[in-house]
Amino acid sequence: MNKIARSIIVICLFFSACRNGNETKSDSSVADVKDFHTLSNADSIILKHLELDIKVDFDRKQISGNATWLIDNKHELKTLKLDTYDMEIDSVLVDGKLAAFKLDSTVKYLGSALEIPIGPDSRYITVYYKTGKDAIALQWLDPQQTHDKKHSFLYTQSESIYARSWIPCADGPGIRFTYRARVEVPKGLMALMSARNPQYVNDSGIYHFGMEIPVPAYLMALAVGDINFSKIDDRTGVYAEPGMIEKARYEFEDVGKMVSTAEKLYGPYRWGRYDVLVLPPGFPIGGMENPRLTFCTPTIIAGDRSLVNLVAHELAHSWSGNLVTNATWNDFWLNEGFTNYFERRITEAMMGETFIEMSWAQSYEDLQIAVNELGKDNKDTWLKLDLKGRDPDDGLTDIAYEKGSLFLKLIEQTVGRERMDSFLRKYFDEHAFKTITTEEFLAYMDKNLIKGDTAVQNKINIKAWVYGPGIPQNCPHIFPQRFVVVDSAIKSFIAGKPVDKQTASAWSTYEWVHFLRNMPKPLSAAQMKRLDDNYKFTKTGNSEIADVWFVMSIASDYKAAFAAMDKFLSSVGRRKFLEPLYTEMMKTTNGKKMAEELYLKYKMNYHPLAQASIDKIILGK
Ligand SMILES: [Zn+2]
Fold it and tell me: Is residue 485 part of a domain?
């Protein structure tokens, strides 16, 4: 069978499937605002459904195959434009017939537009392609870079605009489509996507996927490796490498309960299953909310379930982000600010009020750090961003996450929790599977929550938060009861008094991080040794605590921790941890040398996105 014939069969197969589920939702699939980060013209042509047929080749480190788009050329345009990034295009078919195509020159950050001539009635556009070696979404791991060190592993990270490096697509958060996929992988490995997923390895190495709910391209995801599945309950489970699966299963025991808790707050979970995939150590971020299958870093497997609130965050995205999506990357806070707020509400319901106060306090601290780094008058500290002509990842700062969530906390404090919750429930229901801009949200909030009440308006001062810099004066600043004990432990330690290990034994990660962050810097070598002798920080299995401790160790030149830090840097790829460590090292001449040596040794263990961040820190580019 030749490529063209196979393509036509595929088209016939999916046509009836996508016709049903998507028609009613197609009106919401195109945002009526300009998204400057897509070169596609999906604002005029609707891309309803994707049929993907790809092969994963670990020897060449390449994905090849074809992507067929079902389009609705409602404005009778003559050209369809798709986003691509470092991609080789072999051929293009329009309704099964070979078509001429043009790959435009590369635009910084955005890649190249693929231009395809179409007619008013054109329906199926098939692109045969291969990914390039700079396909930024893909991380190809050799066996020694995985947990078990036996098989190669591949995973994708498509947010923000990297889906275009492995699928020719219309790559904007405001463009939603359904998809089905056939993925061929080496026999013995399992493939997973942000879709209906297998739970067992099959003999053929060919896997079929379906996502009948429309999603934007940044939520396209694929992972391939030696992966096992373990059930948590009827709708939740965990995937991981065989050597990690038991630990992961233990850590995520409460995930089923988390989903029910979230539903009690803001309505039904609408995606069917909720599973978590624990990736090998090089994953550059904490987690990625790929629908039905959160991708997460193994750095949250602490052995004592102390870091699982990261899963609450990714789960919360099933409402804020995946269900109601920011229309452009300028509105990113609508995804992350809401998700941080929602995450804390889930965690509060499960862990109690005094626990979550500590998270809110840390949120304020993180916001202060972000504002200090960016500069208090910097426009990047507004909630509404202006990323035109820039890398959309410039907006990936704690402003969206922390200023965004603290803004919602302020609204909650102003209108009361009951009103806030019924408003949010209604907001998610009425905007389900739609995209929204900041301005649309503000208008919706005014109509449904504030209702023109000037006292409330003045108290909140929306303008200062959304279109103003820095930390607004009315920012909630919560002082947790549980930090009182920690603060007195800090004072007592500095005064050289005996250490109270009994009290500290019940501390959570928040208390430990607060304890270390609020020590004077740098501590003397003797003080560092005293802390380490008492609390064994150098040996901790908790990555959050380890990271703060290693930063302090660099600042204090506490060499006893360096071997453990070396191991940490070799096995952890999460930018949140790498950036502070390399930044601290770069502050002194000796440290610079150490940073350069370590980076040279471990660069290949990091994802291209993490490499780009560390390049900036070390090389200043
Ligand atoms: Zn998030």
Answer: no
